[in-house]
């Protein structure tokens, strides 16, 4: 039985993970951490991770980047693997994640969807094949409550494309409203749409002469992110210390 400590347990995704986990065999949430009080959880909830009494085999963090230092410190002290599903980390927080991965297994993903991570692999292959003759644009759509733009997933897609192109020198151009210039070949356009209750949609457009290719992923429910997070936890369990990605699950 894999025992999970759920950081951010009272948030929307935390509650969905808790519900999804209750239907799975071989996994259980032994405790949660959240600054917001919400009665009715089937496990003890603490406002500070230092107060947790239960022993966990792995941590799933679906909270806020600001909570990262505390949960990473706890994970390293307890030698506990951690799945980090938050986005919007600054350079200092990214450095903390890299340092922690020297001591414990860390899996970081901007998007816990298995489909999105498969899309990233497909996009990398397309970018290698079409490099130099196709313009690349990324369009992402999310609900009107999402704070960060562009999404962490859109940036992860752009980074993946850059990683396979010669020199990795493509520049990111956001929304194009601030420039009255023609597009150049060394651009990846990234565009954000916010509205309604859109769970999440990402489109990668390869536009060439007289033809276009679109690779698209649409999330219709947040449940898929919970499934991905739990699959990531199962993958990370008993792994050696290191820095892992969702793409590692496919290998």
List keywords for this structure.
251 residues; alpha/beta; Rossmann fold; Dihydrodipicolinate Reductase, domain 2; 2 domains; seven-stranded parallel β-sheet; five-stranded mixed β-sheet; 27% strand
In one word, what is the shape?
A: elongated
Oligomer: single chain
Q: Please work out how many helical segments DSSP would assign.
A: 6
What is the CATH architecture term of the largest domain?
A: 3-Layer(aba) Sandwich
Total count of strands: 12
Strand and helix order: EHEEEHEHEHEHEEEEHE
As for the CATH topology of the largest domain, it is Rossmann fold
What is the CA-CA span between the terminal residues? 24 Å
Low-confidence stretches: none
How confident overall, as mean pLDDT?
92
Number of domains: 2
What is the fourth-level CATH superfamily of the largest domain?
NAD(P)-binding Rossmann-like Domain
Helix content: 25-40%
